[in-house]
Amino acid sequence: MEIKRLTDKVSVSPQITADDMAAISEAGFRAIICNRPDGEGADQPSFQEIEAAAKAAGIEARYVPVKSGMVTDDDVAAFGAALSDVPRPILAYCRTGTRSATLWSFHEAKKRPMPEILAATKAAGYDMNGVARRIVNGGKTPTDTGDASFDVVIVGAGAGGISVAASLKSRKPGLNISVIDPADIHYYQPGWTMVGGGIFEARQTAKTMGSLIPSGVKWIKAAVAAFEPQNNAVILDGCRVFKYDRLVVCPGLKLDWDKVEGLEETLGRNGVTSNYRYDLASYTWQLVQEMTSGRALFTQPPMPIKCARAPQKALYLSGDAWFRRGVLKNIDIQFMNAGGVLFGVNDYVPALMKYVAKYDATLNFFHDLIAVDGSAKTATFKVAKPDTAPTDVTVDFDMIHVCPPQVAPDFIRVSPLADAAGWVDVDQATLRHKTYDNIWSLGDVTNAPNAKTAAAARKQAPTVAENIVADIAGRSPVAAYDGYGSCPLTVERGKIVLAEFGYGGVLKPSFPAWAIDGATPSRAAWFLKEKMLPPIYWQAMLKGKEWMAKPEQLKAAAE
C-alpha cells in the first residue's frame, strides 16, 4: 500500500486490500472512497470485501466507481458528495490512484487555483496537466498536440501486447515503442485452471510487469480513456494525450461479474468460486478437496469468452480428484452451458464425452446463469432452448464454479475502433483495422472469429509485427493469421486432449500424430501443458522468440 497525500484532509492510493485496513486506521484515516468498479482486474478484491474490513476497523466506506479513464461531470459530482458525506481525513483509491487524483482535481478546480492543484498532484506523483487543458478547453481534451509521441503505441501489456512489442523490437530495434497498461502484475492466465486443479501454485502464474516489458520499450503505467484515430491520438487517464504513427490495440477482455445478480457479493465464500480470478483459483482447489458429497455446478456463459473450454477443464480436474479419492459416487456434477454443444470442433467431442461419462456429469445446454444466492446456495439460470419459450430454473448447489460473462472493455466498445458488437474491427488475416490503416489489433478484443486463447496471441503477435514493419517500409501486408487456437483440455490429472484448430474449425496440429494425437488423451500433451508451455510463455513468447509461431506469408504478397 502506497498512500499519497494531496492535502491534510485528502490522500489517494493505488488498490488497497482488506489486510491494509489496520495500517489505514493507524495512519488516522476515518473514511475511504473506492473509485474502482468491481471486476476490473483479475486480482481485485470486491468493494464489499473492503467495506467489511473498513467497518471492522471503524472506518466509513463509500463506493463511487468510475470507469477507467472516463471521468465525467456526474462522477465528479458524486465524488464531491462523498467527500462532504464522510469524516476526514479521507483516503480515495482506484487501480493506480490516478482516477482518484483526477476526480479530486476536477472537484477542487471550482474553488482552488489550478497551479495549486497541479503542484499538489505533482508532489503526489500524478501529472494533471491534461486535466488543466481539459478545463481550459471547455471540458474536452484537445488532441491536436500530445504529451508524448511514439513510432508505435501498444495498448495493453498482456500476452498479446508484450509479445508484439518484443517481436517488433527483434525486427526493428530502433523503433520508439510505448506500451500502455496500468497493471503492476502480469499473469499467466492459462495456468489458473491448473491452480484450481491443485497442480500449480498461484504464485507461479504471476510476475511483476516491469520485469517483462522488453528492453528499450517505454512502459506507461496508465489506463486508456479514449481513442481519436483521426488525430492519431490516445487519451489516457488524467487527460494526458499520446500521439502515434502506428497503434496496436490488445487490452484483453472485461470480466462482467455484475451481469450475474448476487455473484460479486458471494465470490470466494459460500462455495462460490472461479478460476477466472487469480485469488479464487486456489479456493476452487480448497472446495474440491473439502467436498465429499453434494452437488457441484460448473457454468459456461454465452460466447465469446477467453479460454472457452476453461469451464470444462475445471469440471474434469475436479471430477478426477473426486474419482481418485473415491467420493465421486456421492457427488452430482452438473455442467450448465449457455451454448448448445460441448465443443465446437466435432473431432474432439468423442474423447471428451468419455470423460463426461466417467465423471457421470450431466450436460445441461442452453442454461445461462443469471443469479446466485450464496447464503441460500442456489443458482438461477435462464433456459432458452431453440423453438421453446425461455424459462428460469433455480438449482441448489454445494459448490459452484462460475465462468463470468465477458465483453470488450468499455473504452473499446464506445470507441471509433469498434464494430456494432463492440469488438475491434479487423481484417481476420492481416489483423489490420478495416477503417484505419495505421491501427492493428490482436488478442481477445478483436472481432476475428478465432478462439480467444494465449496460443492465438502467440501466433498473432508475429503477424502484426511483420505487417507493421512492412507498412513502415511502404509495402502492403505480408503476413497472415490463419485463426490458430489451442485448447489443452485437462481431462484428468496426467492426460490432456490437445485441441488445435484454425478458422472454421480446421484442424491445425503442431505435432505429428505419433507424437501427440490431439483427439486422444495423452501424457505427452500433459507434459507439454505442465512443463513446457509455462517457460515457453515467459522465456520465448514474451521475449519475441517465435518458436513454432512464425507467421504465414500472405498469399497476395507471395504472388
Automatic annotation (TrEMBL):
Tagged with keyword Oxidoreductase: yes
Cofactor dependency: FAD
Annotated FAD/NAD(P)-binding domain residues: 150-267
Occurrences of domain Beta-lactamase hydrolase-like protein phosphatase-like (ranges): 3-109
Keyword Transcription regulation on entry: no
GO MF term set: FAD binding; hydrolase activity; quinone binding; sulfide:quinone oxidoreductase activity
Superkingdom: Bacteria
GO biological process, one term: sulfide oxidation, using sulfide:quinone oxidoreductase
Coiled coil: none
Keywords associated with the record: FAD, Flavoprotein, Oxidoreductase, Quinone, Transit peptide
Pfam families linked to this entry: BLH_phosphatase (PF04273), Pyr_redox_2 (PF07992)
NCBIfam families: TIGR01244 family sulfur transferase
UniProt name for this protein: Sulfide:quinone oxidoreductase
Lineage, opening ranks: Bacteria, Pseudomonadati, Pseudomonadota, Alphaproteobacteria, Rhodobacterales
